[in-house]
Fold:
Amino acid sequence: MATDTLKSTPGARGASGGLRRLLLDNGALTALIVLVIAMSALSGDFLTTDNLLNIGVQAAVTAILAFGVTFVIVSAGIDLSVGSVAALSATVLAWSATSAGIPVVLAVVLAVATGIACGLVNGFLVSYGKLPPFIATLAMLSVGRGLSLVISQGSPIAFPGSVSHLGDTLGGWLPVPVLVMVVMGLITAFVLARTYIGRSMYAIGGNEEAARLSGLRVKRHKLAIYALSGLFAAAAGIVLAARLSSAQPQAAQGYELDAIAAVVIGGASLAGGTGKASGTLIGALILAVLRNGLNLLSVSAFWQQVVIGVVIALAVLLDTVRRKAGATPVAAGAGSPGGRGRQAATYVIAAVVAVAVVGAMSFLHDGSSGTKTQKLGLSLSTLNNPFFVQIRAGAQEEAEKLGLDLTVTDAQNDASQQANQLQNFTSESLGAIVVNPVDSDAAGPSVRSANKSGIPVVAVDRGVSKADTAALVASDNVQGGRQGAEALAEKLGGKGTIVILQGQAGTSASRERGAGFAEGLKAYPGIKVVAEQPADFDRTKGLDVMTNLLQAHPDIDGVFAENDEMALGAIKALGKKAGTSVQVVGFDGTPDGLKAVEAGTLYASVAQQPKELGRIAVDNALRAAEGKKVDETVKVPVKVVTKENVAGFGG
Amino acid sequence: MSDPDELLRIEGVRKAFPGVVALDGVDFDLRRGEVHVLLGENGAGKSTLIKMLSGAHTPDAGRILVGGEEVRIDGAQDAERLGIATIYQEFNLVPDLTVAENIFLGRQPRRLGMIDRKRMEADAAVLLERVGVHVSPRARVRELGIARLQMVEIAKALSLDARVLIMDEPTAVLTSEEVDRLFAIVRRLREDGVGIVFITHHLEEIAALGDRVTVIRDGKSVGQVPASTPEDELVRLMVGRSIEQQYPRERTDTGPALLTVEGLTRDGVFHDVSFEVHAGEVVGIAGLVGAGRTEVVRAVFGADPYDKGTVKVAGTGLRRHDVNAAMAAGIGLVPEDRKGQGLVLDASVEENLGLVTLRSASRAGLVDLKGQHEAAARIAGQLGVRMAGLGQQVRTLSGGNQQKVVIGKWLLAKTRVLILDEPTRGIDVGAKVEIYQLINELTAAGAAVLMISSDLPEVLGMSDRVLVMAQGRIAGELAADEATQDAVMALAVSTHGTGAPTDTGTDTHTDNDVEKEAPRGH
Structure:
């Protein structure tokens, strides 16, 4: 008797069974709902119309990229190049519309064509060149990124105003990126479900050989599939640049992985043959909700990455588990019209239940929003560098002293992630925002929207273009560059050969320090610069680049590195030469840098005082929040630190 | 009641999966030193039963006794401990490891933490000697043919000290020469006291090798009979009704030549192959595995290139290496590897049926989904595909129904020349007959059928003419009335006086008349 219960009849389940079934069948949807409920419970600022729209905007670029990648993954391929192609398309648009003076409409066409062309090259390499998709698109990842740097010469290009409207809102509330995302999603769903190419994708992904022997033109289809992915990447790139009003050659780095994660979270298999547009959208939303919620909850920037990784794994795990549990020999969707009606009904029930729960949650928070302590937000460009870690330390010390609630976020050198974080700050209605822009132009639109909401913004270290900041707290990079040139040239006695290690191409710090150094060097015609190479502000890269340069120029006398990290890498490469036959000058005065100055391997560091920067920025932000007057620019002194004066210098 | 010779006993085992009862009261027992054949149609529950013995499934009810004691087999480790080894149709070997490494995979003899290669290879050599296969323990598994892979699997089972050896359709992919060698090994194992559970669809093998037969139908054991039981009776037990005629070929009047192949040559693979297939005719291609039969039909279909020759359909020449040209002319191919090349396994019945017509059912890039659905429903009904619905995943269909889907997609495309490569391999008797009926209907409607088969009775029973291939050439053509097994085999092993590769025989032939060496293909 007991065993008979195993044969449970599906008809016996009621509506609640249907709901359970729906959630079980859609692991990602369940995960999204759980996340939304959890975030609503934890943060009172989460469930507001503004914030939900923010999430939509923040998901848009990833989602559009992911829609394109869905085509590729369904057909059992992979596309790693979408982030680079997005940046390249945006750069092409901005460059042709501004520098080349082509009409904007044509520039848009050109940008889209660029995306398609990149996709076609991928497709050609995969289907006719027989390269594994991973390798072909990895190559395109590098080529695309490189070309966008070549075209833009490493600096962001302002985006034409008319196209920038794509980053605005319609009727004052509906953000255009969300609209674009929805439209692209519908197109994806339509292509996958209804078109010849879409159905072919499933067949090719499911069994390429069977598809070929059934007369599908697999090679041509693959060309089209990768071209579609390129087209979507171009669209994503344009939306991204429009949001920032600036096309950045370094934009969308690593977005391909987010896109792939979104597709896989959405239930697609990397082995091909499965995947849906709705799943991909849910996947992208999960990532966006997570980032947004963690910002609102003031989770430490470092822990955020851990949490995101864990949630990605859990979401896919949930899906795998439910597939194992719910796998019946009879595939779902054997679609009689009655069955479809019931399915629709369960969707509606699910939506109603979700809304009800979420609504109840938001009531819980009605009273708790009005906290007394002043809340401030600090958005840092990166925490991957001791300099910014020091800014954070100074800011946090000051906030603690003043009894402030300070939320710190890390944009990981990604302008659009920073835009998201600033948007989140704005929707939280903080007292004031301190921003350390990844890029001055790209931070503009987000700061303007904070301005509109009446939240004062203080910029630290780098300024913000085309927006009002209550104060700019910065050290003078150009002046610092000049001082660095002077220090190095004097030490070398006014003659010799030197190399320059540049920072990340396109960042203002690199540009300004470089410009200041070049200017300072003009007074010393005996000094010859034999090489200038970027090492991205990174110690490891500094080591590698310096090692390479030493092969070509073994007899140099000096090195100027645009930050201490690269200088320390260079010192490693120089070995015993450092501080004896080769003099190295760095920039920033980080603790490690100062130690090297003390040890004599680093001749000098143009020291900023990052802790001071952080402290003064918070101080000014509080004054601005309280409506007191603040100075428009606050210069924090820069100082050349050598062995003689290092003792008296400590951050 | 425990019989000291009894290795294994299964009593009233039951297993249900969501929506399906796979096994519903199966009894089975195995004695030391016997070959016990497990017979049943595809989907009868044989696979579930052996998976239960290898630990992949656990029974919902019933008992499994090993050596008289009730056991629970919860995984491969348990099965291994109890001395039960299973050789599946798909081998569990790692292609890029050596034979010795595969035999001792996970149990490599170690010395000081390092793998003791010398000892491992010496041990492997002993095991390989025992199964009587001459292959170096250092050879890479990738380089071996199917028959030798199987021997390696058997050696691996022996290395585990298996007392119970389960073999799932081991002869399905072997040539008759290789089958003989396999039988010799199985007999030797039987003499050593190993109990062997043997699954096969070839009824003639039962009398040749088996001792007892248990027949399973619809998840129940319906009878246990001695292996000497007449084939008709076995079929009746298995199918539940008697099958009138195993090869119900109905000859029709032949029309003009539909497919004409002239001088087709691909250097090193096949040479100067010429033949015609007329409307309403079934032409069989017989030959040993590796004779180049599959390669020829793939070239005819445009799936592979060829160097010389022409392929014409109804007088019009086809472009070389162009599947779409062949399809447009009305050729369809049901490939040898049904799962690997014929079907998108994770897609539904409907999608698989609509694969060939997907393009013609599209207008301005949009697929006529409703039309596709209706067409799929019609053809599935016509072919009698047994399924839960058009949305069922093809992976979960039985072999015979999967094959019907592959054939169905070509029927929807109005194929005039259908090429069938091993159309009934791994398919049970009942479904075979249904596929033969389908061939009859096709030829009656004026289509031409070209059929490759390694199953000689099938080729002889269903073909109007038989082409015999040997070493990449057409060795001869036989009309239906002059085609006998002996005549076909004589042609299949004929050589052209060129230095034919002679594989030094590794065992003596017991019952066969001709010396048949099967040079394996690529």
